[in-house]
Amino acid sequence: MKTRKVFKGTSLAGFNKSFQTDEDCYRYLASIKWKGDSFVCKRCGNTHYCKGQLPFARRCTRCKYDESPTAGTIFDRIRISLLTAFRIVFDMCISSKSMSSSKQAEEYGVRQKTVWEFKRKMQLALDSQDINVLNGMVLVSDFCTMEQDNGKSGIVLIAMEVLDNGEVGKAYGMMLDCLSSEHIQRFFEQHISTNAKVYVSKGRDYEHMVSNYHMENNDDTSLLTQSFTHISNLRSWLFGVHRHILPKYIQGYLNEYYFRFNRRNNKALLFDEFIGLMMQNQPNRT
CA-CA 20 to 30 A from 154: which of 18, 69, 142, 220? Predict the structure, then answer.
């Protein structure tokens, strides 16, 4: 079996050298989809193929079904070139502040709505990203978002791990309509180990809303500073770069932010991991 060539790096020059045409992008997607020479026809289960009509497509030798590297993935039937799509993904991976869809549309010469729709598909792909349950010391905070259509503010719940050296480890966020016991319990179970020592903001009565977790009020100045700084950076990115986000889309932006944040020490492989997630997800036609 052939060894897949993985793109590593955060250099734009390196990216442009590796991906100069749509064909380069198709080749990369094919290497992920079929992992070298592996092939199983979706129609009949046959494992033998020949060259298909489209770039790097594979045609079943039995039923003649022709499958493109993009078929059944988020890259299927997108309204921009594959090279432009790769560049947008790369921008998201390497940028600490991210670019708005209007700026990217201007840069790549496409409609803003087209870029926004593609980026929305990118965010949906992040729903399937691996989640490492937080352990040890975990800070839990929240903040209110802008008013929703019904006049009520949404709430973003944040959990972040504090390492032994005092630095923030991984973190996660969830958009909630309200701080109900059911929503908070689900967030804790998805993201925080029951063995963790949880510190919560003053005035938040999470202990009576969530079971099976040990909690204490966060009175430590250094921890409060960590929490404040983290939330300030998130809010600045969320409502600075992406100003007019409807509440129903905020979770997607949180997924994007924390995908990048939790891999900040291994940015070289961020692009390849993200492309892999997009290959695993079915296109949304609605």
Answer: 220
